[in-house]
Design a protein that fits this description.
With 1869 residues, the protein is an alpha+beta fold. The longest helix has 23 residues. It is globular.
Length: 1869
């Protein structure tokens, strides 16, 4: 039973929940929180505020903040992903809470560093690197590595400026270079230049005419010469002509030109638009963002793959001690026999160079050190041959050549480690990237600079750009601003000492938390709940104020912060304070104070919250006292010349015999000093093994004063529940000893090992001593359930029956430390040595171990509490206890140095006071303490302070103060500044300078986008209101989806996912970062897209809605296996459970324990009797008759027999349990996991340890979700392989056909392929599974009489009712707790969107477009989140206007919950409901991508430039053409296409008539049977199928061909494009092949195919782009430089038609191509048709996968139209035969303006004599029909009839039609 709910007077729970609508909307409402020790808390947490949760360590703060609120907020958002992705996320357990309302998606910022990859750096996780990439791509200049010249690409403007500056008022020649082919003669080459119109060249300082080659004066041509483009007088007035000549010269010279004054002496000055140095010929790769990323194959160093390190010889290991000189042997490998000669060479060459051979290596200059290591030449071999120094590196290279010898390999291995990559020298980037600089710095130099220095540089650089360059462009300004802001945030949280290339995995818990905090601030997420875990850990008081301002900044962006914290300054800055207590553990878990921030610090707050232990400290009523006197050091550890990180030759004395505290600002070098210098070097001196290398130092003395050194850090104690406080401290061995030596223990013959719950025989076998069972829930959080056998005690019954002083071992483990001390104090000796008995001594030793726990305030912990449930503060204090136990075990301890790293982490004021008492006790018994700490209460209580500083990073690393706190207080250090007020005389109530709660500069409630350039967007800036229903509209192809999905959704999801594990993120299909300058105010996003595919052949309604995933989980965990043959239930049992069952039967009378040895087997079975007699058994139960073994006779040979051996006859309930257990174990062993019990009433009871049918003996494995999957061999029916249907031929001959395949797999693939391709009529229901798709074992698993297939055969509404009635108790109820709501919620939502009639096992292939659409919506909209941005892609597609209303109501409900909606839509009704509309345009494709209008619907309607506004303001007047075509008389024999008896799917044997040469529209609500009529009946009429879906048909001969146009995609690879699909590319290729130049070269049409090797570009294989792949990095595509993206090789591109190459033609839009091919009738007709359907903006070579569904459908429509169009002469002659066009919802994705074009195309088709049948929901197209067939009246079984048919006016007047009201409105306009 959970504890009763409690609330205090201070708690907001006293308000009635829901008393104020406003309060509910602005708070997170928590009711009944019972996680861990929380006692049914009811509370409201204000949204958009900074709430601090405080209280004693262990009081329940993390249980509320992390395990309740964060767990629920993260779980709800993660559930919007697919089940496949969800299984990879770190799922937290579902919290124990009645309900949580109004919770936003949550991000935890904890002190956990789970990053392991070196690819992640401070720069990458803060996204500073992403912005630096953009900065370098925009602002960098290249530097020629050989000459140092700066390279910048020239432009015609910059060249013209140079001319005006250098050649003003002079004649100049503008030249361009031409390459001369080898062996080319003078005259032919000059003739070629003349043909091109060039009469002069410039060669050797002379102008030579090409029309007089005989006057040239030379016969041989150089490889390159200059052609004169123009001779021009350089004057300002001629600038236009100069620019024109330069542009032409650059074009012809392929980016290169030259200027000359015409003189013979001077060489022409070269200019290039490339990144080239004309003087040296060096060319740099053009800078792109990818070039500056080591996580991209384009930028990563190819040698180290962007890691910056490789495994090789580490030269630092060769010189381990930098304090040694060359004479002293600083180069370690030179000191043996192998290196003697090298040592002599080094000394010889060093002396020759003038090197001081007696100078310490560390004192040599960096140039001298490099000389020692790398030698005098780049090649060591060259240096050796020239008798020069070859370097330490050369020595190792020489040895590498001899590594075939084992001893050499062993020697080299000592010096191998991860070393800096020799190619990039640790820069991680390709050499091309290192040529680029900004303000004289390469990017790696930026990464290596400390953040503070970098922030100053970026500020100065921005100011310089603004003043010098006359301003900065908007994009660069935004990039600089983002970099500056993120660097400033890092400085503000005290991390200014970090460098951007610092690996994330090397950061401490506090550092990673603050880095993540700044990342969240930089990401500008909003509407998010941030849960922070003590962000001030590791932070000096100086930096706390800046951290608080960062948290306020995050709050002011519209986020809610929940901070678990003990720092007083943070509490004072809070908007709301929650104090949990009053004590810790079970004495906590209540809210003792819940106050607004300001009120908490008013004197009256203590009266209203008397139980609070925090408020007295905050109000100055309590404080930690200053020691009366300070101890004097009893000695020192002297450290001299210590160097590591920012410490350089540091001298420091560490005092002994005192409590010393090392403090200083964050990053000053405290941890380096204490961990790497002091602890590691002392460990070496005292011969203690450690994992890390000690920091180098010159001298360490004084270690002899210590016997040991111990480190107590913040690493976790245990990750498993098997370790407990009593086990960790070693007391459990003593407790087990007491139990083993107790009277009960001796009687049972137990040993101490018997009571071990990890391995002892006394542990519960079912849970293996855990006390709980883990139930894996796949895509739900795993459940941990109390073991039903031991009830959580961990032990079996026999162990629990043994008692010590009235308590069992489990009861002792359940005691708190305080209770245990009282229990063991009875009869305990004062000390173990003075004990009179062994028991008294053992008790005394137990008390000695437990007492430190009590002293440190951990008396509330239970002895058996798993360590992985302890808080951080509890864990660290428990570690201290191990030292305390040893220290206090003897009166005079051997002196040890105890090193503690921030021991106050997670500690409350009161806990710190207890901790200080323990510290003083440790020092009093002779130990020395060195504590790294920032907490001022600890610092003021220390005997001695060492202050490291003065700043962080390179500004720190020095001892700036030392001595007593009073002495340090008098200095000017940062610590002294904050220490001085505390050491004043008046302690209580001292006023301090606390950071103030910053005024709120709330950001606007909008999403702000700047500089969006993705796809066709033209540097768009847009502001989108949040918490509003926003519609994005515009012409098809104008950029709507790019804005909504590629930018807003991609970025919103990416930013939230970045807070989750990197492992999980790789499965979440994150979209690439969009091309955009900045986006802010973005909440977490969820996309609900329209996918065109409807699942595979096995997909059903249940699988696509995820209902089936949860049903599988439910049946696997809670289903009861029945035997498929007997129908009897099968239940597994453990041995202990069977023993208990036998004992319960014994109470009712004697029993016989039997072992079944023969089950249903024929034979004499005499051998069984012989074996039984040999084993000592006397009786057998044979076919339910007793037989004595001695008198056994042979049985009937050909009859099946059952034989059981009698193991034990038990007549009394008092029989020893050990005898029973032994008998049961024997029976189970002989019966292979099964035994039978014959009771006093002669009833047989089977017991199975395994899953064995007690009737048939058939065994079953434990069910798993895969056993219910018809996609898995473990679950599917073996006959139909999960399809539910088979082809009759497959059913008969499947086994015989398998022989014709190479493998079983090949045969199975063929089986599936044939089933997928088979028509519905060819299939029959599987005779084995009867269509259920599952095997017989899975079909026999039931829950309350329902098998899983019984449920899936029900409609949605009935299935929901059945599942809701499922009732479970006990353990099963807990398991079902999370699963049942998931199933019911999804089913009810399906019902809510009008799909209650669908059967769960209905194939997804048979769903209509509208049904599939709403199923996807139902699958996504089930989560109950707030603050989320839902991005929807045309949700009204395929919906009838009536269903549209329901959908919009649903979306409005979603918005009312506090969410934002961004809907891409063309539907006018949706726009009517929107609060804000964004109209993109003005055209489509490259003519779109701009914001035409933004505002309310009324505002849009008034704008004349908005095509959307004009279409809404001026609706169509129907019919557009003035009148409708008359219909033939219904009784007429001709003029109709008639079908009778249509009965496919839900069609009710209907009669249909379609008027010929008319436009017919089939309407009706989604799922009523429209597609069944058109595709299942009309289309089938023209296929040669034997099975008919109709009874009779007439008028078929009037139709020549039938063409279907559906919504399937037109191509899956980038090699498919509109030109290939519509077949116009074949004509274009033929056209190019007929050109004279092509015929001359022998090129046929295949040469112009980019799929043909002869014509395609050899580099990109005709793709136009190249795929870059590299190990450990994601693949990326880059533009093909060879063909410039044109797909073809140069020879093919030389062939031109009207001046355009084949590559140029593919790059044309349809509009451009239609004009270009105006003279080519066939091409022009097809292109014009594409243009008329609104696709003029598409490129004809655009890859098909990039097309939207609507675009693909219109291309298909044009393809069918071009195939079926009748020629003009045929129209005139009016031949009777024409085509039938069946078109499914052609208005999908079309703007109102495009619908007009579509209507025009449909009318023209009819006018050409064709019959057009359209399935459509768009009322505009309905109103244009000549004839409407309205289906219905409802969906599913309630549909399938024709409600009414005729002209639109007739249908509009129908009383029963669901379409009529909407059609009437459309006809009225």
């Amino acid at each position: 039973m959970p504890p009763a709910k409690k609330s205090t007077s201070a708690s907001p729970a006293r308000r009635k929940p829901g008393s104020s609508k406003q309060a509910q909307h602005d708070t997170i409402i928590v009711r009944g929180a019972r996680q861990n020790n929380l006692k049914g808390l009811d509370l409201d947490i204000p949204l958009g505020q900074l709430t601090v949760v405080t209280g004693p360590s262990g009081s329940g703060k993390s249980s509320l903040a992390f395990q309740t609120l964060y767990a629920e907020g993260q779980r709800r958002y993660v559930e919007t992903f697919s089940p496949y992705v969800r299984q990879f996320f770190d799922r937290m357990d579902k919290p124990l809470v009645d309900r949580i309302d109004g919770i936003p998606p949550a991000i935890a910022i904890e002190q956990k560093n789970n990053v392991r990859s070196t690819r992640s750096t401070v720069g990458t996780i803060t996204e500073i690197n992403d912005y630096l990439k953009l900065l370098y791509a925009r602002c960098a200049h290249a530097v020629d590595p050989s000459s140092g010249d700066i390279i910048r690409p020239d432009t015609s403007d910059s060249i013209a400026s140079w001319c005006l500056e250098n050649f003003c008022d002079q004649q100049a020649l503008i030249l361009f270079p031409v390459d001369v082919p080898q062996n080319t003669e003078l005259e032919p080459f000059f003739a070629f230049l003349q043909q091109q119109g060039y009469l002069r060249i410039f060669l050797n300082g002379q102008v030579v005419r090409t029309d007089t080659p005989e006057e040239a004066g030379f016969a041989l041509l150089p490889p390159q010469l200059y052609v004169i483009q123009d001779r021009i007088l350089i004057k300002k007035v001629n600038q236009h002509r100069i620019l024109e000549a330069l542009e032409r010269a650059l074009d012809l010279g392929k980016g290169t030109c030259a200027i000359s004054d015409g003189g013979e002496s001077g060489t022409p000055r070269s200019f290039t638009t490339n990144w080239s140095n004309p003087l040296t010929g060096f060319t740099a790769r053009p800078p792109t963002p990818a070039l500056f990323s080591f996580n991209n194959p384009m930028g990563a160093c190819p040698n180290c793959r962007g890691f910056g390190r490789v495994i090789g010889i580490d030269l630092n290991k060769a010189i381990p001690d930098h304090s040694r000189s060359i004479h002293q042997g600083c180069v370690k490998p030179f000191q043996g026999e192998r290196g003697e000669e090298c040592q002599r060479d080094l000394e010889l060459h060093g002396a020759r160079r003038g090197l001081d051979l007696d100078c310490a290596f560390s004192d040599l200059s960096s140039e001298e050190q490099s000389w020692v290591l790398y030698g005098e030449r780049t090649s060591p071999e060259d240096a050796w041959e020239n008798e020069e120094w070859y370097g330490v590196k050369g020595f190792f290279e020489w040895l590498e050549g001899r590594a075939y010898k084992m001893h050499i390999r062993v020697f080299l291995s000592r010096y191998r480690s991860y070393t800096t990559c020799s190619s990039c020298r640790g820069a991680r980037l390709q050499p091309e990237a290192l040529c680029f600089q900004v303000d004289g710095r390469t990017l790696p130099e930026i990464w290596r600079s400390p953040v503070t220095e970098l922030h100053q540089w970026i500020t100065q650089f921005t100011e310089r750009l603004q003043t010098e360059g006359g301003g900065i462009d908007k994009t660069t300004k935004l990039v600089l601003s983002e970099i500056s802001n993120r660097l400033r945030y890092l400085c503000e949280v005290g991390l200014g000492y970090l460098t951007l290339d610092r690996a994330t995995r090397t950061l401490s818990g506090g550092e990673i938390e603050r880095v993540n905090l700044t990342s969240c601030l930089g990401a500008s997420l909003t509407n998010t709940l941030f849960v922070l875990d003590e962000p001030t850990v590791g932070l000096h008081p100086r930096d706390v104020g800046a951290l608080i301002s960062v948290m306020h900044g995050l709050r002011d962006k519209g986020n809610t912060l929940l901070v678990v914290e003990h720092e007083e300054a943070v509490m004072r800055a809070a908007d709301y304070l929650l104090d949990i207590g009053p004590g810790a553990g079970e004495q906590g878990g209540e809210i003792v104070a819940a106050l607004p921030g300001r009120r908490a610090f008013q004197p009256g707050s203590l009266r209203s919250c008397p139980q609070s232990s925090t408020l007295p400290y905050l109000l100055g009523k309590h404080s930690i006292p200053i020691p009366r006197e300070r101890r004097k050091p009893g000695g020192y550890i002297h450290i001299r010349g210590a160097s590591r990180h920012n410490l350089s030759k540091l001298h420091v004395d560490i005092p002994l015999g005192v409590f010393a505290c090392v403090t200083g600002v964050s990053g000053s070098g405290k941890s380096t000093l204490v961990h790497d210098v002091l602890y590691q070097n002392l460990a070496v001196a005292l011969q203690i093994n450690t994992d890390s290398e000690p920091a180098p130092l010159q001298q360490l003395s004084g270690a002899e004063q210590l016997t040991s050194v111990k480190l107590v850090d913040q690493s976790p104690l245990s990750r498993t529940p098997r370790s407990t406080p009593v086990v960790y401290l070693g007391a459990f061995d003593l407790i087990r000893q007491l139990f083993a030596e107790s009277p009960d223990g001796k009687l049972a013959g137990t040993t101490p090992g018997f009571f071990s719950f990890n391995s002892g025989t006394g542990r519960c076998e079912r849970c293996s001593g855990n006390g709980f069972e883990k139930v894996e829930m796949q895509f739900l959080s795993d459940l941990y359930l109390t073991c039903p056998e031991c009830q959580g005690s961990r032990y079996n019954q026999s162990a629990l029956e043994i008692q010590f002083e009235g308590k069992s071992i489990a009861e002792v483990l359940a005691l708190t430390v305080t209770e245990a001390m009282t229990f063991f104090a009875r009869g305990a000796a004062e000390t173990p040595r003075r004990a009179a008995t062994k028991e008294a001594a053992t008790k005394a030793r137990i008390l000695l171990i437990l007492r430190p726990l009590e002293d440190l305030g951990l008396g509330y912990l239970r002895l058996g509490q798993p360590l992985n449930t302890l808080s951080g503060g509890e864990s660290q204090r428990l570690k201290l206890c191990t030292i305390l136990v040893e220290a206090l075990s003897s009166r005079k301890a051997s002196p040890e140095l105890l090193v503690l790293d921030e021991p106050t982490t997670g500690l409350h004021f009161g806990d710190i006071q207890k901790l200080l008492i323990v510290f003083n006790r440790l020092v009093d018994v002779g130990h020395s303490l060195v504590v790294i700490e920032h907490n001022l209460d600890v610092i003021k209580s220390a005997d001695y302070l060492i202050d490291v500083g003065p700043g962080a990073g390179s500004e720190g690393g020095r001892i700036v103060a030392k001595g007593t706190p009073e002495e340090v207080m008098k200095t000017s250090t940062q610590t002294a500044l904050y220490l001085a007020p505390l050491l004043g005389k008046e302690q209580v109530g001292t006023e301090k300078n606390w950071p103030k709660n910053s005024s709120r500069n709330r950001t606007q409630n909008t999403i702000q986008i700047a500089g969006a350039r993705e796809h066709n967007l033209k540097n768009v800036d847009v502001t989108i209101p949040r918490d509003t229903f926003v519609v994005v509209t515009g012409l098809s192809g104008s950029g709507k989806s790019t804005l909504a999905f590629d930018i807003i959704f991609a970025e919103g999801q990416r930013r939230f996912l970045d807070s989750m594990s990197p492992y999980a993120r790789q499965f979440a299909e994150q979209m690439e970062k969009p091309d955009i300058d900045r986006i802010s105010g973005l909440p977490p996003t969820v996309a609900i897209e329209q996918r065109i595919s409807q699942g595979g052949g096995k997909s059903t309604v249940a699988t696509v809605t995820e209902v089936y995933h949860f049903l599988r989980l439910l049946y696997a965990k809670l289903g009861t296996q029945h035997c498929p043959e007997s129908g009897e239930p099968v239940v597994p049992q453990t041995e202990d459970a069977i023993v208990e069952a036998v004992r319960s039967h014994l109470k009712r009378g004697p029993v016989d324990i039997l072992a079944p040895v023969v089950r249903g087997r024929k034979g004499f079975h005499s051998d069984v009797a012989v074996w039984a007699e040999r084993q000592g058994y006397t009786r057998l139960l044979v076919d339910n008759q007793w037989k004595e073994v001695e008198t056994f006779e042979r049985l009937e040979r050909f009859q099946e027999h059952d034989i059981d051996v009698l193991i034990l006859h038990v007549s009394k309930a008092s029989t020893r349990i050990s005898a029973l257990r032994e008998a049961v174990a024997t029976a189970l062993q002989l019966g292979k996991g099964t035994l039978r019990l014959l009771d006093s009433g002669n009833f047989l009871h089977p017991f199975s340890k395994a899953r064995v049918s007690p009737v048939t003996g058939r065994s079953f494995e434990a069910p798993d979700p895969a056993h219910f999957s018809f996609n898995s061999p473990r679950g599917w029916c073996k006959t139909c392989r999960g399809h539910g249907e088979v082809m009759p031929s497959q059913k008969r001959s499947r086994k015989s056909r398998r022989d014709s395949f190479n493998s079983k797999t090949e045969a199975e693939i063929d089986f599936d392929r044939k089933l997928d391709r088979a028509d519905k009529e060819e299939l029959v229901i599987c005779p084995d599974c009867q269509g259920s798709r599952l095997n017989e074992i899975s079909r026999a698993i039931r829950i309350q009489d329902y098998a899983i297939q019984d449920l899936t055969m029900l409609p949605v509404s009935e299935a929901a009712a059945v599942v809701e009635k499922f009732h479970f108790t006990g353990r099963a109820r807990t398991i079902a707790r999370d699963i049942i709501p998931e199933i019911v919620q999804r089913l009810l939502f399906l019902e809510k969107v009008g799909l209650g009639y669908l059967q769960l096992n209905r194939s997804a292939r048979t769903l209509s477009g509208g049904e599939a659409q709403r199923i996807r919506l139902a699958a996504q909209l089930g989560s109950n989140l707030r603050g989320v941005l839902y991005v929807l892609d045309e949700p009204t597609i395929g919906l009838h206007p009536r269903d549209n209303q329901k959908l919009l109501d649903t979306l409005e409900t979603l918005r009312a919950k506090g969410n934002s909606l961004l809907v891409v839509e063309h539907d006018d009704e949706t726009m009517e409901r929107a609060g804000h509309i964004i109209d993109l345009g003005p055209g489509a494709g490259r003519h779109g991508g701009e914001i035409v209008a933004s505002g309310t619907l009324g505002k849009i309607r008034k704008l004349k430039k908005s095509i959307t506004g004009q279409a809404l303001a001026n609706p169509l007047s129907h019919p557009i053409r003035g009148q409708r075509r008359p219909l033939p008389k219904a009784s007429a024999r001709t003029g109709w296409l008639r079908l009778k008896g249509c009965s496919v799917n839900n069609l009710k044997n209907i009669e249909v008539r379609i008027p010929l040469e008319r436009l017919t529209v089939i309407t009706g609500i989604s799922g009523c049977g429209k597609s069944s009529l058109m595709r299942g009946s009309l289309a089938e009429l023209f296929k040669r199928n034997t099975d008919k879906t109709w009874a009779s048909a007439s008028g078929v001969k009037s139709i020549r061909h039938c063409y279907e146009v559906d919504q399937s995609p037109i191509g899956k690879t980038s090699r498919s494009c509109p030109a290939t699909y519509v077949k116009i590319f074949d004509e274009i290729r033929k056209l190019f092949a007929q050109l004279p130049e092509a015929r001359m070269k022998g090129f046929d049409a295949s040469r112009f195919s980019f799929n043909n090797a002869s014509g395609q570009c050899p580099e990109c294989k005709g793709n136009g782009r190249i795929k870059l792949e590299m190990d450990f990095l994601p693949s990326t595509w880059t533009h093909c430089e060879s063909c410039n993206g044109k797909r073809y090789n140069p020879a093919t591109l030389e062939i031109r038609y009207n001046g355009q190459s084949i590559g140029d033609v593919l790059a044309m839009t349809i509009d451009e191509a239609a004009e270009f091919f105006a003279a080519h009738g066939k091409l022009h007709r097809a292109l014009s048709l594409l243009k008329e359907t609104g696709l003029g903006y598409l490129q004809i070579g655009q890859p098909s996968p990039t097309l939207s569904g609507g675009e693909a459908q219109r291309i298909k429509l044009v393809t069918e139209l071009t195939r079926g169009r009748i020629s003009k002469t045929s129209i005139k002659s009016r031949k009777p035969q024409a085509n039938l066009y069946l078109i499914e919802e052609p208005s999908i994705g079309l703007h109102l303006e495009d619908v007009k074009r579509l209507i025009d195309v449909l009318h023209r088709l009819v006018e050409e004599g064709h019959t057009v049948v359209v399935v459509e929901h768009h009322t505009g197209i309905m109103a244009e029909a000549d004839n409407i067939i309205d289906m219905g009246p409802e969906a599913g079984e309630s549909g399938g009839r024709i409600v009414t048919q005729g002209p639109p006016e007739k249908v509009a007047n129908s009383k029963t039609s669901r379409t009529a009201p909407f059609l009437r409105a459309a006809l009225k306009g």
